[in-house]
């Protein structure tokens, strides 16, 4: 289909940066600095499951790349480039232009050019696959299995807003324009913490992003590192609009809400100043929220020092109907 | 969903080979030998568009990886690993087991382990995204833009069978069990020409695979290299079952039929012996089918030395309804 190729060319083919072979050959090519490894992550996003059908296409283009850049951030990897697969139920040029604009803007901001792709028609749903590539010096990646007992547990940014925005847009919560305005950006325009991930190399023992929610993702670190942890609820950095909500809803959003592209990481107490300095250099906010323990299990202590009885499970946005 | 994670773990998590960090962290990690570049390609395959809904899942797992390995072959890149995104309308364990078996068998045969992925539910269609990574010494990749005037044009394998099998299965041709049996393997179990691509480094000037069909893909080489070409129809390696067909159908299948994971490449006449030796080393059949010309345009000469008047356009399998 000539029209399809024309559209790909118009919106997705850019001149590849020097040293990279981009869209237009069987493969894209990129160099890797000596002594560095390639870090890669892939996500497949589907309409109705990972995003609402009427989402702003500019935000969708941004987020499709952001969730993958967040995985590079969580490894402490520097972005190199990305490839995009796009299955479109319709060819709508304004939609495509806006999607590409959102995608390329974030790619440019992180030096992560689109170097290959595949566009096709789909019978029903819009599907977006993004694979990112980054580089990290051998042995310096921030893995999930590197945490040690007695580490501080830190998170970047604020928690809870994405979950609340999702439930408002999904109709689970009564319409509330002010609350939606205060939370929607966290859901639709997440900012991957790439600079923070790079700054934490050599400081953090383990890191992960919070795409599945704080308890579930911290649980992945603990399981991989064979540790437990205790969190201090009062220390959690709750998004201001969420802090005013009913306690049960707030806890569900903060502890269980996924789709959060902030980092959770552990570092030894001796590195507190180094963590703070790394965060300042990356212009990120970080908060110390608890400690890892040699004993298995994850507890969240309330302000009276009692463990919360019912911890919310990781929340699966857009469950299959 | 615990069940979903369990299934991923059961069928897609394997112990990563030494030096690679596989499924189970934010990113997979792999090393790249000094002086080599990374080659990468991505494909997004959709039910009803790239494969029939009732296709053997073992064949589907094989083909989803094969089409990507074929892109590495066409660049002369050695496979390193791959990532898989899978959107499933249902979780059917026998289907998943067979798909994984077909995928892993081809991955093992080419030393291309699955090192990362993303599995999700889809509302309607099955979607499969595969991204492969390979390595190629800097400057040695077989690109599309390296052909020179006076090069021989070669193809590997045989042509025409995949197109005929597709049209039989799609009901465009009257049912013919013998013809289907003779052609179906080319459509459903394509063998990527990885060894041939590697053997052609330093010999071929340009290469491409025939996923869009001979005329269209050779056209990509000619456009990128600013050349024309003349092909000799009588020299084309036609699959035996196709050779017996009506002339118009045969030409459509051989010249226009896509979904062919063989290589088309150019090399100078002085390298004919080297090409033959490379093919023998790779246990591949290669056939010389024409020459590149400095003058633009692509002609196919019939057995009387006259150019064919109506060349079939590249054929888009599974066009959008």
Automatic annotation (TrEMBL), chains A, B:
Gene3D superfamilies, per this entry? PurM-like C-terminal domain, PurM-like, N-terminal domain
- Specify the PurM-like N-terminal domain's residue ranges: 24-136
Q: What GO molecular function annotations does the UniProt record carry, in alphabetical order?
A: ATP binding; magnesium ion binding; thiamine-phosphate kinase activity
Give the binding site residues for substrate: 50, 259, 315
Keyword set includes Metal-binding: yes
Q: What is its EC number?
A: 2.7.4.16
| Binding site residues for Mg(2+) 2 | 43, 71
Report the protein name in the record.
Answer: Thiamine-monophosphate kinase
Organism source for this protein? Achromobacter kerstersii
């Amino acid at each position: 289909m000539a029209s399809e190729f024309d559209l790909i060319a118009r919106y997705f083919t850019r001149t590849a940066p020097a040293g990279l072979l981009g869209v237009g050959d069987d493969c894209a090519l990129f160099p890797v600095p000596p002594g560095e490894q390639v870090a890669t992550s892939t996500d497949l996003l589907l309409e109705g499951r990972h995003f609402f059908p009427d989402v702003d296409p500019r935000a969708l283009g941004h987020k499709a790349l952001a969730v993958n850049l967040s995985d590079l951030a969580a490894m402490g990897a520097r972005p190199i480039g990305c490839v995009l697969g796009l299955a479109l139920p319709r060819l709508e040029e304004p939609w495509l232009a806006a999607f590409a604009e959102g995608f390329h803007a974030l790619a440019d901001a992180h030096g992560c050019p689109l170097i290959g792709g595949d566009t096709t028609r789909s019978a029903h749903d819009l599907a977006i696959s993004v694979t990112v590539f980054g580089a990290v010096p051998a042995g310096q990646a921030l893995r999930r299995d590197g945490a040690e007992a007695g580490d501080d547990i830190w998170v970047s940014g604020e928690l809870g807003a994405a979950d609340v925005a999702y439930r408002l847009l999904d109709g689970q919560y009564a319409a509330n324009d002010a609350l939606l305005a205060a939370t929607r950006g966290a859901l639709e325009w997440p900012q991957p913490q790439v600079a923070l991930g790079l700054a934490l190399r050599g400081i953090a023992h383990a890191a992960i992003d919070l795409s599945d929610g704080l308890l579930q993702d911290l649980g992945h670190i603990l399981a991989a590192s064979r540790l437990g942890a205790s969190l201090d609820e009062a220390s959690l950095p709750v998004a201001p609009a969420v802090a005013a909500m009913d306690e049960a809803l707030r806890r569900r959003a903060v502890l269980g809400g996924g789709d959060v592209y902030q980092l959770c990481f552990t570092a030894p107490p001796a590195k507190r100043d180094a963590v703070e300095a790394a965060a300042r250099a990356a212009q990120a906010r970080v908060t110390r929220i608890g400690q890892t323990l040699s004993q298995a299990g994850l507890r969240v202590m309330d302000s009276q020092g009692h463990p919360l009885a019912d911890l919310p499970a990781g929340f699966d946005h857009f469950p299959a109907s």
